[in-house]
Amino acid sequence: MDETTDSALPCRVWWDEENQVAHNDWLPGSVCDLAAARRVTAAVSAFGRGPVPVLVDMRFLAKADRAAREHFTSPEAQATAVALLVASAVSKVVANFVISVQRMPVPVRMFTDEASATTWLREQRE
């Protein structure tokens, strides 16, 4: 498992070798602005695997500002598919906003179960 060591990141970024999926696990109460979004995508790119499916665990994310959401939905993010893992009302609102308002250049789906999200991301690779 590859993992970023950037302590400035508001989330844990790691590579799941078995499923060939990048993970962004947002820390409790974290807020994502454009600078954080760019650091997260740079950390995923640093794994050296090119564009990849990404599982975003946003169950504890407090807020993602507009510039960050736009960054994550742009080609610069280099995701081939995005699974949004949610639980709280706040995370569901943010995920629904991303899915319904932002134009995604890749498939994106919201999940409440990590295993289902991982299975769906693996299917997107085929």
From TrEMBL:
Q: Which Pfam families is this protein grouped with?
A: DUF7793 (PF25056)
Q: Where is the DUF7793 domain?
A: 18-123
Q: Which domain of life is it from?
A: Bacteria
Entries under InterPro entries matching the protein: DUF7793
Q: What is this protein called?
A: SpoIIAA-like
Organism expressing this protein natively: Nakamurella panacisegetis
